[in-house]
Amino acid sequence: MVLVSVNMIHSELSQKIRVVANQKKVDNCSEHKLNFYNNYAKVVSETLKKPFFQKFLHWIIRKEQIEKNVVNDIQVRVFPFQKENGNCLAGRCYHNNGVILIFPKKHSFVERKLENHKKRKVRFYLKSRAMAALIHELLHVKYKGKENKVRKLTQKYFHIFIELNNPDDPIAKNTLQVMF
Ligand SMILES: [Zn+2]
């Protein structure tokens, strides 16, 4: 009985993940960039829906006693969100309607990274960034506005996740150093 309900919760959360694009931005985007962002969003969406990641999220939800029913919609946004300081936002959580947004890095950032790093490394970083962003925003469901606490917990949980899935991968180790 317990196992059945746990599996249901996994699929429920992953069913809430969808790719969303701002139509105005689609219309104003070059074909090359649009292909890039669409592909990026597809990879992120697939990564966030992976059973091993969903299982891990559910473990965090139980451990932190996060009210999972509060989350109605997890949007993998196709286009980046640039803050006033020029940095790109990774995620955002709207408590009143239970919406979590996950944003990509900019096309120019990724192109620059690909000049000096292997494709696998860059992809691993971008996927990790998206996973950590979802963990971060889920934690905000419980810890509203507590940025420092959420940051510390995200770091702790993401380290555990990497330890479980990529313990001997130097790229994973390096990614952790870059991210936190
Ligand atoms: Zn935050």
Structure notes:
This protein is α/β, with parallel strands linked by helices. The chain has one domain (2-179). It contains eight helices and four strands, in the order H-E-H-H-H-E-E-E-H-H-H-H. The chain has a four-stranded mixed β-sheet with strand order 1-2-4-3. A hairpin with a 4-residue loop joins strand 3 (91-94) and strand 4. Helix 4 (51-64) runs parallel beside helix 6 (119-142) and helix 6 packs across helix 8 (170-179). The radius of gyration is 16 Å and the shape is globular. The termini are far apart. Residues 1-8 have low confidence and may be disordered. The structure holds zinc ion (ZN). Residues 136, 140, 147, 150 line the site of zinc ion (ZN).
Secondary-structure-derived class? alpha/beta
Overall shape: globular
* Spans where pLDDT lies below 50 across 5 or more residues: 1-8
Please state roughly what percent of the residues sit in beta strands, choosing from under 5%, 5-15%, 15-25%, 25-35%, 35-45% or over 45%. Answer: 5-15%
- Total domains: 1
Q: SSE order in H/E notation?
A: HEHHHEEEHHHH
Average of the residue pLDDT scores? 91
Q: Summarize the amount of helix as a percent range.
A: 55-70%
User: Strands of the largest sheet, in order across it?
Assistant: 1-2-4-3
Supply Rg.
Answer: 16 Å
Total helical elements? 8
Ligands and ions found: zinc ion
Extended strand count: 4
Instruction: Measure the end-to-end span.
Output: 39 Å
What's the main sheet like? 4 strands, mixed
